[in-house]
Amino acid sequence: MGGVFSLHESARPFRKVQNESNKNDSIVENSSIGKNKHIEHLEDEIINSGLPGLKSVIETLTAVHSMLSGKEDTGYSISEKWDGAPAIICGKDPETGNFVMGDKGIFSTRSNNKIFSLQDIANIKPDKEINGQVKTYQGLRNKLSTVFPLLASLNLDDVIQGDLMYTKSDLKQASINGRQYIIFRPNTITYAVPVDSELAQKIVNSEAGMVFHTKYTGGIDLSTMKANYGFNATELASPSALWITDANINGQLKNVKIDQLSSNKIFSSIQVLSKVANSMENDALNLDDGSIQELKTFINYMIKETGRFEQDLSKFVNNFMGWAQARSNPVTIDPKKLASLYNLYLAIIRIKISLLSYLRSVKLLDTFIQHTDGSFTPTSSEGYVVVDQFGKAIKLVNRLEFSRFNFLLPKNWN
Predict the structure, then answer these.
(1) pTM, 2 dp
(2) Each residue of 220-253: pLDDT tens digit?
(3) pLDDT at 197
(4) Average pLDDT for 165-177
(5) From CA 403, how far away is CA 382, in angstroms rounded?
């Protein structure tokens, strides 16, 4: 992990006390977290929460490393992030008992985004005139109109959330590295299935494909329901016209091969973070709210513009301060504190990338980035969501790979 920290054998990672009753495949989201909306990057937790955030990061890294090492009783769940679009919530409306579908706005009490019929799709997603130009949502309406009757036919007793991966017209055939694939690109990543496979035939014979990852339970209406991560798609008796899978990969981690030397290096790096956390004052990493948002925005800007994380701590601090000043948002951060925080930030990323190199071997479909010239470059999946035993979710993403493409490539849906 680099020579920035020393290591003593006595350093031990922080661990949470496990509750046996919470060790199941479906993890209930803590009521304080809200609906399954925005999930933070792992390394951003030290920006968001300071030292408690660092301790939470250490716990997450320790759990993921344990799971990759063959230990299944960590109390954590890991799901693959599929790069689908749009997000769709569907199921039995608690208030009416009727089938309902919508996007994440379906949970809001201040909007009318519930789709109960095909006519509702036209009403909710009309074309708009912006600066004298008509922005059409016909493509989105077509997709929603295709998937609505298919999802309604599932006769769901619950409310579930997933991502639309394709409708029939999105499926193409392409040659990649001399092999024929059925491909589809819902958003940034192009998914590919060998044309001669059984899975390809299922996909070709379907009208749409969905990946589900969350179930909602409880509540007197949609706005009061709570998310349960780790949805198992085998609960659904899906029609042949709808290809369905789920995102949970816990059961597949036993197939990951991590050699002992690499495992030991990762574990030692996590121990280093533990020792550093143990030596810190409670407020050593604290930032005010304005600085937190500016720093996260700057890091996204840095990834988009340069495609790298600055490794020189002094240069990073100076660049950030100058950038914030130019935006008329000067921040009040002690440069030494910022350098220390960013040093830890880079250390977390290094450990995360090591873990991702093993996690990425667990995937159902091949994944590529399709460039504007039609060529394909292999890529990993979008990333992974790790959920602890208390229901808090965090994402592990290679931001120099997926996030930068996500910033730069045009979306493939509307």
Answers:
(1) 0.81
(2) 999 999 988 878 898 888 789 999 999 999 888 8
(3) 97
(4) 97
(5) 8
SS (H, E, C) the chain: CCCCCCCCCCCCCCCCCCCHHHCCCCEECCCCCCCCCCCCEHHHHHHHHHHHHHHHHHHHHHHHHHHHCCCCCCCCEEEEECCCCCEEEEEECCCCCCEEEECHHHHCCCCCCCECCHHHHHHHCCCEEECCEEECCHHHHHHHHHHHHHHHCCCCCCEEEEEEEEEHHHCEEEEECCEEEEEECCCCCEEEEECCCHHHHHHHCCCEEEEEEEEEECCCCHHHCEEEECCCHHHCCCCCCEEEEECECHHHHHHCCCCHHHHHHHHHHHHHHHHHHHCCCCCCCCCCHHHHHHHHHHHHHHHHHHCCCCCCHHHHHHHHHHHHHHCCCCCCCCHHHHHHHHHHHHHHHHHHHHHHHHHCCCCCCEEEEECCCCCEEECCCCEEEEECCCCCEEEECCHHHHHHHHHHCCCCCC
Mean pLDDT of 3-25: 35
Domain that residue 385 falls in: 20-26+44-79+256-408
The per-residue pLDDT for range 277-291, each reduced to its tens digit, is 999 999 999 999 999
Residues pairing with 92 in the sheet: 99
- Please state, in angstroms and rounded to a whole number, the distance separating the CA atoms of residues 191 and 353: 22
The two three-digit tokens of residue 372, written as one number? 């504007």
Q: In this structure, how many other beta carbons lie within 10 angstroms of the beta carbon of residue 343?
A: 16
Residue at 52 is within a domain: yes
Q: Distance (Å, rounded) from C-alpha 370 to C-alpha 176?
A: 10
350 or 410, higher pLDDT: 350
- Asked if the structure places residue 296 within a domain, the reply is yes
364-402 pLDDT, tens digit each: 899 999 998 999 999 888 899 999 988 889 999 999 886
Contact 71, 254 (CB under 8 A): no
* Confidence check: pLDDT of 57 > 60: yes
| Number of domains composing the chain | 1
- The partner residues of 386 in beta bridges, in order of sequence, read 78, 394
Give the residue-averaged pLDDT of 180-186.
97
Q: Give the span between the Cα atoms of 186 and 164, in whole angstroms.
A: 7
